[in-house]
Design a protein that fits this description.
The complex is a heterotrimer of chains A (682), B (187) and C (571). With 682 residues, chain A is an alpha+beta fold. Chain A has 25 helices and 20 strands. With 187 residues, chain B is mostly helical. Chain B is extended. Classes of the chains: A alpha+beta (682), B mainly alpha (187), C mainly alpha (571). Chains in contact: A-C, B-C.
């Protein structure tokens, strides 16, 4: 979906939104938004009153009353339009997704291996299907057999195919994606209608949108304000009667609509929808709005070192031989031991030996007749090669030490000294031994990604603590942590350590966010307040987390946090703006209401509006137009800056508080000038 | 029910201690240490109590300094304290003051009357007038009593109370005490 | 405005600031389970009271138990005050042989004193016997103040405690509040007041012959002992009708200064207690600062308005020598002390007055009115001021949290929708009661408007002030309104009950909800509640909530009258 950046003012969306604005006038729909519901009731009432007045001929100032009524309707429509615009963007994306969901045919495998062709909708959890090159994968599931390259552009927008294979962390496949080569057997993990794509469509369309806790609280605040102003306006009539200055219902409802927080009320749901949309544009799927909001509150960010803080692959940068061993001998042994090692580390050793010592990379077949590759296993934790009687091994220091056993105790202190030195500067020491004799150490260096220190500094300013998780030993971890600028690290981490860390942080009342992809990350992802699963990860991880990153980019967490904060900030800013606006509206409407009876009250007409009618009309028009004017802000969100809470608040208060105080004075005055110039306010 | 019993018992014990014991203890100490004050600062003159130093009285005679207008009862009724409670735009207030001004100035627009002689106090029992209000009355009292004005001015100055603790309150003249002083020196 | 006047105001504010910390420390020691001062002397008395009333002072209550005990105590209090008034004629210490006040007046007075409002529809020296004053009214001066104090202490506990539902023991809070805080202060103050000329006797009214030979009946009574608690407990119900303007209640400028100090000493001290108990002293000061700034601004605004005098007076009325509008102000206090007292007594929900607010200039009188309309949080009534302010703090923190993109937090607690809901409820009940009852009154040709003393816009101010004062539990008045009628006695009584209990319930609910919460650690992303920025935002929220609700009605009352006065109109 990266490909389809949708402009805010996309004409098809606008035309759709226009139609939707009217459909949303249904009072039952409006009831969800108490503020705008009050406006609609006001508009309906005034329309009725206007018609009744015309019918009985008892109309007062019909032109004025008609325009007030009209603008109240506009106010409601503008608010609906804002919401429809936000939804429209989601709908456009949903349509693209639906194309991927066209009815597919599945080759279901029976218990005896026979293939039965069924519709994808007939698949149930646990069914096993065969997908061959050219087929669409009929549903979400895990690869249980085979390897295939899969085109996932339908959901990620990324055209480069990805490899999916059984076992390990790349076993999850998504319905609607296409197998390009080879074949796989997939165990289906979701029933029809509950698949990833289905959920995604529901999310982007806003159908699954639930109100988030802060949104609920804000709604209560807004309802409270609405009731308060309703009261202020209803009781104003008795006071006006006492003062012999009774008001028409048109004027009273105008005052009410101007006072209740229509600006934020009209834009509230648009803001919520737009934030979800924003996440989707970043290729992140949030399973709940709650999670997005929680992202703004994160205290602690757990980041895996590899792939997030450092480039995924370490590079060999130096050979450090033991005393009495030549550089060349060490390099040669190291290269031989790494020939069969297809990992990036292994390849970098081969390359380093070539660059440093001119040792050409040899084909395994070319180095000797009797060779046997010793692959890396979790038990031995080393790899190597047996070649013409040479037994060359490389591995972590403790693994090699165990392998050497008692045989070479004499060199151990020196070896340990080197190993420790390498670890202390953030390298990973890899010990090379030949025929049970240690030769020296390969210095594997972790390369910290560019710009990480700056990002962590930003996070620190937001009050977020970063913790690096790594399987490295303490010394290495400390060194990399210092280089990357994280606040803390967890070294030699096993999955249960990660879990324990999250629980510890949460016990202190902190909110924790993490990323993960493996099945063994699933418990931690579930435990974390914000768990972002990588799309490349296992189905278990995706189920456990509350967000999925389609790009599988672990640094995305930082952007998610920003979006979460933006969501709240935009609401807060518009609420403040909306309330601050009331001051100017009072100064426009109140003098206009009473100046006829009490000419002295013109002293309150600080904007010097021309007539009472134009003053009231200007306030109502401003109130309606400001909703339209703020749609872009609601959709794009208030710009987030990494600042401390105090600095951020001061900034936002200046812009939206002070701005909200001043802007309407200018706006209402301008509208007053215009409508008087064109002569529609009589 | 437990709450009701506890409440009732607590109210009972509070009534006995705070409602009876506490005021009586204060009374005992007050009567012992400040008998004059606690009994109302009553002033005797020629063998009879003529009033309280703290409670204003109305004076009508030309020979006395006059107090401020009073809204307490029919004027300086010390069993019905209170102010006029007239708002600033109330025509009753304005016309009352207009009448008083005319009377005090003899319709001379150049004479300025200190406002305290035109306004009622909130208690209606204000024992004081401002030094300016006393000054305003000096010519009249001097004429009525046949003392010269500078002598009178000296007496007024003597009975003017200054601010307390350097800044607190306003300078003021106790009308009853001033008039008593006048009676002592000139019958 | 004079230099001396400004110095008096600033002097008062400085002294108030100086006493805040010692008072706050003292209150903390009384209520925070520490060993209170004077424990050795008062401890045995305290235990005796517990034994007599069968109270277990150490058993902690949850919010519902606490609320139930509070309601029971208030109900019995009301009944006691009502009964004593109705039986006054048959009870001792009634030298003037006053008959019982009417049932509706007795109801109004009972509610008024029980709710710490001390609105007085009656005139003290012409209605109440010494016995009624001492045993019915004075007891409530202590008790209602202690209840307010207790609720504030409960809310502070709610903020300071984590993951618990126990909020203290109501009975112990009441008894300790009275015994360790109110009684000692009142006792010392009473003796001081006597030294200044406040009376304390049980004599019948003194009949004297004045210098000019007319008779004058001087009301007497045990004034000093009652006056002291009236101020310390921010009650405000005067022994005499003229309240603290009466020379027997407030004889000297020094006494006046001490009275103003006594009104605010506990409310100010509580802000320090808040900081101390929650271990966030600077937050306590930030709240204090908000109150202080509002008080200072109000005082100077009113001072400015009163100093300009009344332009409707004849040209040769010399208002400038005396510094301004002297109608309804005592000579010894002048403009400055009248205005300062008015802002202090309305900022706090005290309601004692040393001048007649009804006769203030429109803007000068709008300040006391607005002080109450803002919710009695400018220091506010004893206890009530702080808990009202904390409700605004919760709203402020909520808005600030949204503005910085973080779920709002307050002193280590997340502010969630339930808290906001209760805070809104609290903030809603107040204007609802005031506006609706005022609106009914102005429509009531034959029950609402007949009580008016002033016509036009000022009349609306009188009614608005009455319901504002009653709902805010203040008790001061635009006293021209004759409120001793069936309608006003009943409606104002209802307003007082609503303003007290319907607002305490949400506060207890918030205290309970906060106490149950887990601690949230602070970080740079948390909006700090101890900065000048916080104080400024808190002030804005208070003003906006207050001003936006009441601006329309104020336009038709003091603001309209102001413009009318300037243009020379009278009614």
């Amino acid at each position: 979906m990266k490909k389809q950046k949708i402009s805010i003012w996309d004409p098809t969306i606008i035309s759709q939104a226009l139609i939707q604005s009217f459909k949303k006038l249904n009072p039952r729909t409006m009831l969800k938004n108490p503020v705008m519901f009050v406006v609609e009731v006001g508009a309906i009432f005034l329309t009725g009153k206007l018609i009744a007045n015309l019918a009985t001929g008892s109309a007062g100032n019909v032109g004025f009353e008609f325009q007030i009524t009209l603008w109240l309707w506009f106010t409601v429509l503008f608010a609906n339009f804002a919401e429809a615009m936000a939804e429209g963007r989601g709908k456009a994306q949903a349509d693209t997704l639906r194309q991927a969901k066209t009815e597919t045919v599945a080759k279901r495998l029976g218990s005896k291996g026979e293939i039965k062709t069924v519709g994808a909708t007939e698949l149930r959890v646990g069914d096993i299907v065969l997908v061959e090159a050219g087929d669409l994968i009929p549903g979400d599931g895990d690869v249980i057999e085979g390897v295939a390259s899969v085109d996932e552009s339908a959901i990620t927008g990324e055209s480069a195919p990805v490899i999916r294979e059984s076992g390990g962390d790349r076993s999850a496949v998504t319905g609607g994606t296409k197998v390009l080569s080879d074949w796989i057997k997939v165990r289906i993990s979701s029933n029809p209608g509950e698949s990833f794509i289905d959920r995604m469509i529901a999310l982007v369309e806003g159908a699954a949108r639930q109100k988030t806790p802060n949104e609920i609280a804000l709604n209560i605040l807004l309802s409270g304000l609405t009731i308060t102003f309703l009261l202020a306006v209803v009781t104003l009539q008795p006071f006006a009667i006492y003062s012999n200055a009774a008001q028409t219902v048109f004027v009273l409802i105008s005052l009410l609509v101007c006072l209740i927080p229509t600006t934020i009320g009209g834009l509230l749901s648009a803001i919520g929808i737009a934030r979800m949309d924003r996440l989707i544009q970043k290729n992140v799927l949030a399973m709940s709005g709650r999670a997005v909001e929680a992202a703004g509150d994160i205290n602690t960010l757990l980041l895996d070192k590899t792939g997030t803080i450092t480039l995924g692959n370490r590079q060999a940068t130096e050979f450090i031989p033991l005393p009495g061993v030549s550089d060349l001998r060490l390099a040669d042994a190291a290269q031989l031991a790494s020939l069969a090692d297809e990992t990036p580390e292994g390849r970098s050793i081969v390359v380093l030996a070539k660059n440093r010592f001119g040792l050409r990379g040899r084909k395994i077949g070319g180095v000797g007749k009797s060779h046997e590759v010793v692959p890396f296993t979790a038990q031995t934790r080393m790899s190597g090669i047996d070649l013409n009687g040479r037994k060359i091994r490389k591995g972590a220091a403790d693994a090699i030490e165990a392998y050497l056993g008692e045989s070479r105790n004499g060199d151990l202190p020196e070896l340990r000294r080197i190993v420790e030195r390498v670890a202390r500067v953030g390298g990973t020491p890899l010990v090379v031994a030949e025929n049970l004799q240690p030769l020296g150490v390969i210095f594997l260096k972790d390369i910290v990604k560019g710009g990480m220190r700056e990002r962590f500094n930003e996070l620190r300013k937001m009050g977020i603590r970063t913790v690096m998780i790594t399987g490295d030993n303490r010394l290495t971890a400390a060194s990399i942590a210092a280089e990357a600028g994280v606040d803390d690290f967890l070294a030699e981490a096993k999955p249960e350590d990660k879990m324990a860390l999250i629980k510890r942080e949460q016990a202190e009342g902190k909110l924790v966010a993490m990323t993960g992809d493996g099945t063994n990350d699933a418990p931690a992802l579930a435990q974390a307040d914000v768990g972002v699963a990588m799309n490349t990860g296992t189905q278990a991880a995706k189920e456990a987390g509350n967000m999925v990153d389609l790009d599988s980019d672990p640094t995305k967490l930082i952007e998610i946090v920003e979006i979460g904060k933006q969501l709240l900030m935009t609401r807060g800013a518009l609420t403040t703006f909306s309330i601050a606006n009331d001051v100017a509206k009072y100064f426009a409407i109140i003098p206009a209401m009473f100046v006829a009876t009490f000419p002295v009250l013109n002293g309150l007409n600080v904007m010097n509006l021309q007539t009472p009618q134009s003053a009231i009309l200007s306030a109502v028009i401003f109130n309606a137009l400001v909703i339209i004017g703020l749609i872009p802000l609601a959709l794009k969100g208030v710009r987030y800056r990494a600042l401390s809470a105090s600095a951020l608040l001061r900034r936002n208060l200046c812009i939206y508080g002070l701005g909200g105080l001043i802007a309407p004075f200018i706006g209402i005055k301008l509208i007053d000038i215009i409508i008087n110039a064109i002569g529609i306010a009589q | 029910m437990k709450d009701i019993i506890a409440s009732t018992l607590l109210i009972l014990i509070l009534t006995a201690s705070l409602g009876v014991v506490y005021p009586i203890v204060v009374w005992g100490i007050a009567q012992a240490v400040f008998p004059f004050r606690s009994n109302g600062s009553l002033i005797e003159h020629e063998g009879r109590i003529v009033g309280s130093e703290l409670i204003g009285q109305g004076f009508l005679s030309e020979r006395y300094f006059h107090s401020r207008p009073s809204a307490a009862g029919s004027g300086y009724d010390a069993s019905a304290s209170g102010g006029s409670n007239l708002g600033p735009t109330n025509s009753k207030l304005i016309s009352r003051i207009q009448t008083d001004v005319e009377e005090l100035t003899g319709n001379d627009p150049t004479v300025r009357v200190p406002a305290d002689l035109l306004t009622t106090s909130p208690s209606g029992l204000d024992p004081h007038i401002s030094p300016a209000a006393a000054e305003f009355q000096i010519p009249r009292v001097a004429r009525a009593r046949g003392i010269n004005e500078s002598e009178l001015r000296r007496i007024v100055a003597e009975s003017t109370e200054a601010r307390e603790v350097l800044i607190l309150g306003e300078p003021r003249v106790n009308v009853l005490r001033l008039n008593l002083q006048l009676d002592r020196i000139s019958r | 405005m004079t230099l001396n006047g400004i110095l008096q105001i600033l002097g008062y504010l400085v002294v108030l600031t100086l006493v805040t910390k010692p008072m706050g420390i003292y209150l903390t020691r009384v209520f925070d389970g520490e060993r209170a001062p004077f424990e050795r002397i008062l401890g045995p008395i305290e235990r005796m009271i517990y034994a007599f009333c069968r109270i277990k002072p150490d058993s902690e209550m949850n919010w519902k138990q606490y609320g139930r005990a509070m309601v029971a105590f208030s109900m019995i209090s009301t009944l006691a005050v009502y009964a004593i008034q109705r039986l006054q004629y048959y009870l001792p210490l009634n030298p003037q042989a006053f008959a019982a006040p009417s049932p509706d007046s007795s109801f109004n007075t009972a509610v008024s004193f029980m709710t710490n409002t001390n609105w007085q529809g009656y005139s003290g020296e012409a209605t109440m016997s010494y016995f009624t004053q001492m045993t019915a009214l004075s007891i409530q001066n202590f008790a209602s103040a202690a209840v307010g104090l207790a609720i504030a202490v409960v809310l502070i506990r709610g903020i300071a405690r984590f993951e618990t539902d126990s909020l203290g023991n109501f009975w112990s809070d009441i008894v300790r509040g009275i015994l360790y805080v109110l009684l000692p202060l009142a006792f010392v103050a009473a003796i001081f007041f006597v030294s200044q000329g406040v009376i304390q006797n049980f004599k019948p009214y003194e009949v004297v012959q004045t210098l000019e030979g007319t008779g004058q009946t001087i009301a007497m009574g045990p004034v000093a002992s009652q006056l002291a608690i009236v101020l310390v407990g921010t009650n405000g119900g005067g022994f005499f009708n003229a309240n603290s303007a009466h020379p027997f209640l407030n004889p000297t400028p020094l006494a006046n200064f001490v009275q103003m100090l006594l009104i605010l000493i506990i409310p100010a001290g509580l802000t320090y207690t808040l900081g101390r108990v929650t271990r966030s002293q600077s937050h306590g000061w930030a709240v204090y600062a908000a109150m202080m700034i509002l008080l200072t601004c109000g005082t100077f605004a009113s001072y400015w308005a009163e100093s300009r005098g009344n332009p409707l007076l004849p040209q040769n009325a010399d208002q400038s020598t005396l510094g301004g509008n002297m109608e309804g102000k005592e000579s010894r206090f002048g403009i400055t002390n009248s205005v300062l007292f008015a802002t202090v007594t309305t900022g706090a929900s005290c309601g004692a007055v040393n001048s007649m607010h009804d006769s203030f200039t429109p803007l000068g009188g709008m300040v006391p009115l607005v002080n109450i309309l803002l919710g009695e949080v400018i220091f506010g009534g004893i206890g009530a001021g702080l808990y009202g302010m904390l409700v605004f703090v919760i709203l402020t923190v909520f808005i600030a949290g949204l503005m910085v993109g973080r779920t709002p937090e307050y002193l280590g607690k997340k502010i969630e929708s339930y808290d906001v809901q209760m805070a809104i409820l609290y903030a809603l009940i107040f204007p609802l009661t005031i506006l609706v009852l005022t609106a009914i009154s102005v429509l009531g040709e034959d029950f609402g408007l007949t009580s008016l003393n002033n016509p036009g816009a000022h009349g609306l101010s009188e009614i608005l002030y009455a319901f504002t004062s009653a709902t805010g539990n203040n008790g001061s008045a635009f006293a021209g309104l004759n409120a001793n009628t069936l309608w006003y006695n009943t409606a104002l009584g209802a307003a007082m009950l609503v303003g007290r209990f319907l607002m305490i319930v949400p506060v207890l609910a918030i205290a309970n909800n906060l106490a149950r919460k887990k601690r949230v650690p602070e970080s740079l992303g948390t909006f700090p509640v101890n900065t000048a920025l916080f104080t400024a935002l808190l002030i804005s929220v208070i003003i906006i909530v207050g001003a936006l609700t009441f601006f329309p009605v104020l336009t038709l009352s003091p603001i309209l009258e102001h413009f009318q006065m300037l243009s020379g109109q009278k009614f």
